[in-house]
């Protein structure tokens, strides 16, 4: 009799355990709630709250418990007052991806998300874990085999596309440049994806001490219907811009002098030969680049203005480099750069004044019909 009772108890216990396991597996929304709790205790309250509120909707038709969560910071959430459910879905993967799994994926590989028809793109390079050109912290907040949580500084852009590799299209010979003097590349209509990218760029500028240039750009891009395929912006720090705020007539010229109609990443910029000229949107104004003799890592532009924050922001169409001062047009003003290094105060502007005869002129276009700049 005792043996029968013992067997019955064991059977009931086994059935109970199996039932609990089945219930746990059949309720994947519990995985979301677990993620929300972990995020909340780890300082990602905004992501935690959004996951908790959307838990039932997010996984209503899912059977698997496996999940990978990419959690932007609270600051990133502050830049988007009302987070669309679609954007939240875009940061969730239907499988648990370990750090090893993510690192093993090749550049350009696509990863399916819970947002139908929208995949993430692996952009990892030089051992920096990156997705959609957003750096991912390689140390997960949690990785238990079913649930993996990674942290990111900002949101992934759902409209991200792998940037086209740099080529002679940017660094073209003078004949090619002259052939394209009436324009360069193609232009794109401003769409939701571009608005998203520009909001991200503006936010990045403000968060790193370049608020004045962000405000200039806001005004210049307001009402813009189209923009070039690719751009590079050299953004002066706020202290340098302070003396120019309030003089509205200068705004367009300032922006033009700091905008290049082609995307030049930092690793490409530092390979330029000394004296190379880069054309800007300001007609006749070029950037003359050089390096200091004291430090080959310090890359300088006109009048010894240094690049102090390389690749401050990077998307598939725009890269921003922070610089230490304003780029002045010395051909039309008597102003000088007071903060330039003394060793560069006598820098020879021969190449700048005779750019038409320079063999390494970098001229994607003299001037594009960029409506905000007319």
TrEMBL record:
Compositional bias ranges of the Basic residues kind: 348-360
Entry-linked Gene3D superfamilies: FAS1 domain
Record InterPro entries: FAS1_dom_sf (IPR036378), FAS1_domain (IPR000782), Fasciclin-like_AGP (IPR052806)
Signal peptide feature range: 1-26
Pfam family, one: Fasciclin
Region described as Disordered: 339-361
UniProt KW keywords: Signal
Keyword Transport: no
Superkingdom: Eukaryota
Boundaries of every FAS1 domain copy: 16-155, 197-327
Similarity annotation: Belongs to the fasciclin-like AGP family.
Protein's name according to its UniProt entry: FAS1 domain-containing protein
Species: Pisum sativum (Garden pea)
């Amino acid at each position: 009799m005792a043996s029968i009772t013992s067997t019955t108890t064991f059977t009931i216990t086994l059935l109970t355990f199996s039932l609990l396991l089945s219930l746990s597996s059949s309720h994947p929304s519990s995985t979301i709630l677990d993620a929300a709790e972990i995020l909340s205790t780890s300082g990602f309250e905004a992501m935690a709250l959004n996951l908790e509120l959307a838990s039932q909707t997010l996984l209503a038709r899912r059977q698997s418990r496996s999940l990978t969560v990419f959690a932007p910071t609270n600051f990133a959430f502050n830049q988007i007052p009302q987070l669309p459910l679609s954007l939240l879905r875009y940061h969730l993967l239907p499988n648990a991806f370990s750090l090893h799994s993510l690192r093993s994926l090749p550049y350009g590989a696509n990863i399916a998300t819970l947002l139908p028809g929208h995949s993430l793109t692996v952009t990892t390079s030089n051992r920096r874990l990156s997705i959609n050109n957003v750096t991912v912290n390689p140390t997960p907040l949690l990785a238990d085999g079913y649930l993996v949580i990674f942290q990111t500084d900002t949101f992934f852009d759902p409209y991200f596309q792998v940037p086209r590799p740099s080529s002679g299209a940017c660094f073209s010979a003078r004949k090619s440049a002259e052939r394209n003097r009436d324009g360069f590349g193609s232009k794109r209509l401003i769409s939701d994806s571009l608005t998203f990218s520009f909001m991200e760029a503006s936010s990045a500028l403000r968060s790193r001490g370049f608020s004045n240039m962000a405000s200039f750009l806001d005004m210049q891009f307001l009402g813009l219907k189209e923009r070039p395929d690719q751009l590079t912006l050299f953004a002066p720090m706020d202290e340098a811009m302070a003396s120019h705020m309030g003089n509205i007539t200068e705004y367009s010229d300032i922006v033009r002098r700091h905008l290049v109609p082609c995307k030049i990443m930092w690793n490409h910029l530092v390979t330029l030969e000394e004296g190379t000229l880069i054309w800007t949107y300001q007609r006749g104004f070029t950037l003359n680049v050089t390096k200091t003799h004291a430090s080959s890592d310090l890359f300088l532009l006109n009048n010894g203005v240094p690049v102090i924050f390389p690749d401050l922001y990077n998307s598939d169409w725009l890269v921003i480099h922070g610089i230490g001062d304003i780029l002045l047009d010395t051909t039309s003003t008597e102003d000088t750069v007071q903060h330039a290094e003394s060793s560069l105060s006598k820098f020879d502007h021969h190449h700048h004044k005779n750019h038409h005869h320079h063999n390494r002129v970098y001229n994607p276009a003299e001037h594009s019909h960029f409506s905000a700049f007319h």
